[in-house]
């Protein structure tokens, strides 16, 4: 699954277009490498998303095509 779609489905970013723009600006890293929006997410990847002043680091636990809002947080685990 593409990183922009994963960020939307996991609700780490509200819209896929926003996730795509963030990737183009170099604000999304996977395993300490800046990635494009077409990057293919794998289980165990560590995703870093930069929202202006704060950074969110999350480990991918599951990949699903769709998810309910209540289950979205099961797709990842926040890492320090």
Task: Order the strands across the largest sheet as they lie in space.
Answer: 2-1-3-4-5
Overall pLDDT score:
95
Q: Which structural class fits the helix and strand makeup?
A: alpha+beta
Radius of gyration: 11 Å
CATH topology category name: Structural Genomics Hypothetical 15.5 Kd Protein In mrcA-pckA Intergenic Region, Chain A
- Low-confidence parts, pLDDT < 50 over ≥5 residues? none
| Helicity, as a percent range | 10-25%
Structure description:
Belongs to the RqcP family. Residues 1-64 form the RNA-binding S4 domain. The structure is a single chain. By secondary structure, the protein is an alpha+beta fold. The protein has a single domain, classed as RNA-binding S4 domain (Structural Genomics Hypothetical 15.5 Kd Protein In mrcA-pckA Intergenic Region, Chain A). Helices cover 20% and strands 26% of the residues. It has two helices and five strands. The protein has helices at residues 3-9, 16-24, and strands spanning 28-30, 33-34, 46-51, 54-60, 76-78. Strands 2-1-3-4-5 form a five-stranded antiparallel beta sheet. A hairpin with a 2-residue loop joins strand 3 (46-51) and strand 4 (54-60).
């Amino acid at each position: 699954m593409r990183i922009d779609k994963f960020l939307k489905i996991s609700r780490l970013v509200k819209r896929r277009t926003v996730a795509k723009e963030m990737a183009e600006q170099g604000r999304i890293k996977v395993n300490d490498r800046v990635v494009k929006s077409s990057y293919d997410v794998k289980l165990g990847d560590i995703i870093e998303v930069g929202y202006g002043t704060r950074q969110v680091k999350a480990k991918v636990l599951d990949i699903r095509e769709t998810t309910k809002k209540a289950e979205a947080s099961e797709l990842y685990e926040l890492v320090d």
